[in-house]
Amino acid sequence: MSGFFRRLVFVLSVAIFAALGFGFVLGQVGWLGVHAGGEQDGAYQQMRVYAEVLKKIQTDYVTPPSIPKVTNGALHGLLESLDADSSYLTPTEYKIYKERPAAGVGRIGVTVSKRFGYATVVNVLPDSPADQAHLTDGDVIEAIGDQSTHELSLAVIRLMLDGMPGSTVDLSVVRAFKPDPDKITLTRAVPNPPPLQTQQYDNSTILYLKPDVLTADRVSEIGDRIRAAGKNEKILLDLRDVTGADPQQGLRLANFFVKQGTLATLVGQKFPTQTFTADPSKFITEAPVAVLINRGTYGGAELAAAAIEGDKRGDVVGERSFGEGSLQKTIDLPDGAALMLTIAKYEGPDGSKIQDNAVAPTVAVNQPTDEMLQNPGNKTDETLDKALDLLKTKGA
After folding, report:
1. Fold identical between 102-187 and 197-392?
2. Which of 33, 34, 147, 363 gets the most CB atoms within 10 Å of its CB?
3. Quick one: pLDDT band at residue 53, thresholds 50, 70, 90?
4. Sign of CA dihedral 101, 106, 110, 114
5. Is a pLDDT exceeding 70 seen at residue 252?
6. Residue 303 — φ and ψ, nearest 5°?
7. 314-318 and 363-364 as β-strands: parallel, antiparallel, unpaired?
């Protein structure tokens, strides 16, 4: 057991013992440790160890601990040790979360998750405040205002990044190749996703489609463009740095290319397994297709790529995706706090959990070297070029 996790359990034990009475709990733990079996016996054995540690802390530590403070910190850490999407919200945080507006929210234009304990940029919406400040995937948001993101749950981080349109947010950002964090101030704005990018390649025999987000409207637009494509046109679907907040839109997109079979499965410990299958009536094209992905391909976009890859419907080109594909349940707690707990994960047609393994390309293209990343003049898109070469060899 790691020292970090041991400390987390200890501070949780502090709250339990303070609430129920030290002597009473010790007695119960001892009795249960004798009579319980299997995994429970091991858990209660650990509780006896924690009780002994607590006793020493109570008698020998320099000052009495602040129980509410350490308990909140422990609960944040305990949930985050499960996965980035599981969060503990204090009563105050949960109240703000429930009262957040559904529309008209000012945002900075980033998708964030947590990696290595800190908020990390997954992808950036073009022409957004974050894009104008040159934020890029992989940048670490070390702090929001004067609060370290290491001490915040992902749900709270996302709340803090949002706000009234026109309001500002101060960030401390750690970037590649820079030893010190950048201090930047961004003005929130109502997001306005760029239009669907389209282009013709190889004498109009390849239709290039690039959405920046997978909203219902954008997926419908992609479907319309595919239906209007020429009979001999192949499809190049660019899902690099694409966010799909709604997994169903990613599956809907995949169904345009996959006529039948499993698109994805949603499974959990106690969650009733759900299998999502292709609907033949929603199928559009048998034309050859290639999909571009990278580490900024996230959520529903990953589901679409995994379904097309799993059906062997086309090549998936680029680098491994981010790895986001889970379902959360919000559980109210008696004191007004809440848990946001991951209860199920999406699996691709091959049974691989996207949350754990991400989506691996069928054709890998090496990431840019450090020298290339530091040379903004290098405009070569090797991933795009590779996919075009692959499609050119496919029969229409």
Report:
1. no
2. 33
3. low
4. negative
5. yes
6. -60, -40
7. parallel
- pLDDT, residue 61, reads 76
| Residue 195: predicted pLDDT | 94
- Angle at the Cα of 327 (from 81 to 241), degrees rounded to 5? 85
- pTM comes to 0.84
Return the pLDDT at 92: 94
Residue 31 has what pLDDT? 35
Long-range residue pairs from 327-333, CB within 8 A, at least 24 positions apart, any chain: 327/266, 327/268, 327/271, 328/85, 328/86
For 163, the 3-state DSSP assignment is strand
Mean pLDDT, to the nearest integer, of 213-227? 96
User: Residue 180, SS3?
Assistant: coil
Domains of the chain, by residue range, sit at: 3-65, 102-187, 197-392
Q: Is the pLDDT of residue 396 over 80?
A: no
| Helix (H), strand (E) at residue 292 | strand 289-293
Quick one: how far is CA 66 from the chain centroid?
A: 33
Backbone dihedral region of 249: left (phi > 0), alpha (psi from -120 to 50 degrees) or beta?
Answer: alpha
For residues 69 and 157, which has the higher predicted lDDT (pLDDT)?
157
Burial class (CB in 10 A: 0-12, 13-18, 19+), 384: buried
With a cut of 80, say whether residue 69 has pLDDT above it.
Answer: no
Three-state DSSP state, 326? strand
| pLDDT(62) > 90 | no
205 contacts: CB under 8 Å, gap ≥ 6: 230, 232, 233, 234, 396
Cβ partners under 8 Å of residue 23, min gap 6: none
Tokens of 313: 């419907």
Reference 316, options 268, 264, 359; nearest CA is 359
Between 230 and 224, name the one with better pLDDT.
224
Please check whether residue 342 is in contact with residue 86, taking contact to mean a CB–CB distance below 8 angstroms: yes
CATH topology of domain 102-187: Pdz3 Domain (2.30.42)
Pick from 308, 193, 294, 200: nearest CA to 238 = 294
Please tell me whether residue 377 adopts helix, strand or coil conformation. coil
Rounded Cα–Cα distance for residues 84 and 80 (Å): 6
Q: What is the reported pLDDT for 73? A: 74
